[in-house]
Amino acid sequence: MSDAKKGDWVQIHQIVLKPEERTGKLPEDTKKVPLELWVKGFLNHDANLYDEVEITTLTGRIVKGELVLINPRYEYGFGDEYVPELLKIGKQLRGILKGGDNK
Predict the structure, then answer these.
(1) Rg (Cα) of the chain, in Å, rounded?
(2) Per-residue pLDDT, 74
(3) What's the pTM?
(4) Which of 4, 24, 42, 46 is the most exposed place for a label (fewest CB within 10 A)?
(5) Phi and psi of 86, rounded to 5°?
(6) Per-residue 3-state assignment (H helix, E strand, C coil) for 17-81
(7) CB 12 within 8 A of CB 67
(8) Is 10 helix (H, G, I), strand (E, B) or coil?
(9) How far apart are CA 28 and CA 50, in angstroms?
């Protein structure tokens, strides 16, 4: 049985650049660490934590990375729990603002 199902809201992690691949015009302490990316989106297939997965972001980008969280919450002060209704409302609002239907 998989930890996460297709369509679940998840967060992935990806190393964009290894330290040796980064530009030389960086502060010394920055050059020593990789450039990392964390992205949230909808899982495109069933998977377990720490599997390499593919997600679709809210803007429709397809991104690959290591599955690190299932139902991640935003950590900048809008609550302590993942609220799935807010995600649906956001998608509906974007559709309405673009002149489409609100599904």
Answers:
(1) 17
(2) 74
(3) 0.72
(4) 24
(5) -65, -35
(6) ECHHHCCCCCCHHHHCCCEEEEEEEEECCCECCCCEEEEECCCCCEEEEEEEEECCCCCCCCCCC
(7) yes
(8) strand
(9) 30
φ/ψ (deg, to 5) at 70: -115, 135
Q: How far apart are CA 79 and CA 66, in angstroms?
A: 25
Write the CA distances from 85 to 48, 63, 74, 91, 103, integer angstroms: 24, 24, 14, 10, 13
Residue type at position 96: I
Is the Cβ–Cβ distance between 10 and 52 less than 8 Å?
Answer: no
Instruction: Tell me how far apart the alpha carbons of residues 76 and 74 are, in angstroms, rounded to a whole number.
Output: 6
